């Protein structure tokens, strides 16, 4: 007699848990059932994914302390593969539970399934080149020992700035000014030097309403007017 449409039996068929007679009956049924054929393709794709489970997981279970759902499911898988009496109750439910456990972060498969292959080269990030007219300069003040590397990027009538600043004591309240050729200044930012900033330096972004072609220098001073470092950037 031809096997009836049975998702559970189909799951056991994919996992190789049927005897020879049941396999023949399922083959006959699949030859005339388009719905089961489609389900079979989906189950085989799932089975290929489950094939990522390490053999030792099937033998000994997941690592101690692993996800309880995954542990219970693997125990059921082992039991079903070891006997025929309960295989019709195994079917799709156990396979779906394994997939759910993996997707929810059980840890046995996640790293293996998502880690890039060691032989596969990762794409190189694309970095846009700096616009024409960008200026980069570094200077260390011999008196204060403060140092700054500054990049000035031209925009439409103003400039963007990026500063890497070190050598300024913790707690200093500082301002950054972009100085024009005529001596006028526009503030590009301000900050308080943290303990980490005093020890490792600080990186800041800013902007100032100074025409790019008129920029002469970038200066850092505290709110009392003490200058720590000035970097000439005039083209």
UniProtKB/TrEMBL annotation:
Primary location group: membrane
One annotated GO molecular function: zinc ion binding
One protein family per Pfam: zf-HC2
GO biological process, one term: regulation of translation
Alphabetical keyword list: Membrane, Metal-binding, Transcription, Transcription regulation, Transmembrane, Transmembrane helix, Zinc, Zinc-finger
Putative zinc-finger domain: residues covered: 8-36
Transmembrane feature ranges: 90-110
Protein origin, superkingdom: Bacteria
GO cellular component: membrane
Coiled coil segments of this chain: none
Bilayer topology: Single-pass membrane protein
Places the protein is found: Membrane
PANTHER family attached to this UniProt entry: ANTI-SIGMA-K FACTOR RSKA
The name this protein goes by in its record: Putative zinc-finger
The species this protein was found in: Lentzea xinjiangensis
């Amino acid at each position: 007699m031809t096997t009836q449409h049975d998702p559970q039996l189909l799951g056991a068929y994919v996992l190789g848990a049927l005897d020879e007679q049941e396999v023949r009956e399922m083959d006959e049924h699949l030859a005339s059932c388009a719905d089961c054929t489609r389900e079979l393709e989906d189950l085989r794709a799932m089975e290929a994914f489950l094939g990522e489970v390490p053999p030792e997981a099937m033998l000994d279970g997941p690592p101690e302390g692993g996800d309880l759902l995954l542990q219970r499911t693997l125990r059921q898988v082992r039991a079903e593969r070891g006997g025929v009496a309960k295989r019709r109750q195994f079917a799709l439910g156990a396979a779906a539970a394994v997939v759910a456990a993996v997707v929810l972060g059980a840890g046995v498969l996640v790293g293996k399934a998502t880690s890039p292959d060691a032989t596969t080269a990762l794409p190189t990030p694309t970095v846009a080149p700096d616009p024409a007219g960008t200026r980069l300069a570094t200077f260390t003040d011999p008196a204060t020992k403060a140092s700054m590397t500054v990049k000035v990027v031209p925009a439409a009538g103003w400039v963007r700035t990026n500063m890497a600043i070190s050598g300024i004591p913790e707690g200093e309240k500082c301002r950054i000014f972009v100085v024009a050729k005529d001596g006028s200044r526009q503030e590009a930012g301000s900050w308080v030097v943290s303990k980490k900033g005093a020890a490792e330096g600080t990186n800041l972004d800013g902007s100032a309403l100074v025409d790019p072609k008129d920029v002469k220098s970038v200066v850092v001073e505290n709110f009392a007017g003490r200058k720590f470092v000035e970097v000439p950037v005039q083209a």
